[in-house]
Amino acid sequence: MAQISTTEKPQMQQIDLNTLNLQQLTQLKNQLDQELSIFQESLNTIKMARSKYSASKEALEQFKGDWNEKQILVPLTGSMYVPGTIKDANNVIIEIGTGYYVENDLDSAKEFFKRRIEYVQEQLEKIEMMGIEKSKIRDTIREVMEKKLTQFSKELQAKKRDAE
After folding, report:
1. What is the pLDDT of residues 103-145, one digit of tens each?
2. A GO molecular function for this record (predicted)?
């Protein structure tokens, strides 16, 4: 008996897929396809965030506290720069989210990005697990649909033979 069972969450229920008709199974499969698409978009967004935080952490690893008065190029866009000078190499300004910035010393900034990377990785793993579960459910629904279609085809052929 093919069933969807989600006993971990009390607001969810168990459904015997064999009791659903093809239209209901198709709707359920389409809903899961949409959810999987959303999960994939979320994964891509989270991977980009992880990449951004990793690049920031790596840049800080290369940064040296004795770079005071060092000449640098400051990016204005992805391909346009202006010359600049490092005034305080022991402190950096980091974005902590949605346009908010704080000044931190190098070690605190490195620790911030380390924590962010770990948090984003945890979220990534959670979404991947949910996606795997949804994929398994969708595959089970496909199997039930194929069985029902095969059964329907056999019944139709039997009716044709009986009519002849």
Report:
1. 999 999 999 999 999 999 999 999 999 999 999 999 999 999 9
2. unfolded protein binding
pLDDT higher than 80, residue 100: yes
Q: Shortest CA distance to 103 belongs to which of 84, 90, 120, 87?
A: 90
Under CATH, what is the fold of the domain 15-137? Helix Hairpins (1.10.287)
**What are the extents of the domains in the chain?**
15-137
Q: Long-range CB contacts (< 8 A, 24+ apart) of 94-100?
A: 94/56
DSSP 72-118: EEEESSSS-EEEEE-S-TTEEEEEEETTEEEEEEHHHHHHHHHHHHH
